[in-house]
Amino acid sequence: MDDESGGILNISLSDSETEEQQTPAKPSNRTGQSEEEFQAVKRTYHVRIENGNISEGISLPLGPNPNKMLVQQLIHAVEEHYFFRRYEEGIKLVEKVLGGEDSATLDESIKNQLLLYKSFCHKKLDRIT
């Protein structure tokens, strides 16, 4: 059998497929910033150093739609109280958030995480006393 005569493996591609394959894709701009813009941002950037007082930077109530960064800061504040063995402060912060109007604006997973840290703080307090 002759391969050029149209056997089962003799498949031709349509013109649109060959044109798509021949046109090279132009590279995308991954940074979206010029060098000058980057240098301007770099000059104004300052590292935030947390030294045990994250909860002081949180203003309660959080508001109707707290952004992810604010919610993460709240969780980190409770974690920080637990880490530095300030269990009463951690419990008070969780109760203040979940007992007020912020409770309705927080996701269930965030509420569960805050309640988990509250229970950890209670367990540590029970061991101490």
UniProtKB/TrEMBL annotation:
Residues 1-36 are annotated as: Disordered. Residues 11-32 have a biased composition (Polar residues). This is CTLH domain-containing protein. It comes from Bionectria ochroleuca (Gliocladium roseum). The lineage of its organism: Eukaryota, Fungi, Dikarya, Ascomycota, Pezizomycotina.
